[in-house]
Write a structure and sequence with these properties.
The chain is of the alpha+beta class. Helix content is 44%, strand content 31%. The protein has one domain. The chain has one helix and four strands, in the order αββββ. It has a four-stranded antiparallel β-sheet. It is globular and about 30 Å long. The termini are far apart.
């Protein structure tokens, strides 16, 4: 019984990690697109740390860092950090 429970927990953690990795890849793709559409240099987002709802600190492949968030007017903004 303990072995079955341990195996179930291990499989759940593996599937959970795969799901998080997929979401991270989608988030990085979205952040790359947002920064490019705003006309800012980035190349490719390599890291995005969530700071709040619709608020991320993004690090680009070229070393640039941006805070990408939705402002009070509802517009997406990227501020160089």
């Amino acid at each position: 019984m303990k072995i079955k429970l341990a195996l179930t927990a291990m499989l759940a953690s593996c599937y959970g990690a795969a799901s998080v990795a997929a979401n991270d890849a989608a988030l990085l793709k979205d952040m790359t697109a947002v920064i490019a559409l705003l006309g800012l240099p980035c190349g490719q987002a390599v890291s995005a740390v969530r700071q709040g709802d619709n608020d991320h600190l993004v690090t680009c492949k070229d070393g640039s860092r941006y805070r990408v968030f939705v402002n009070a007017e509802g517009r997406v903004v990227a501020q160089k950090q």
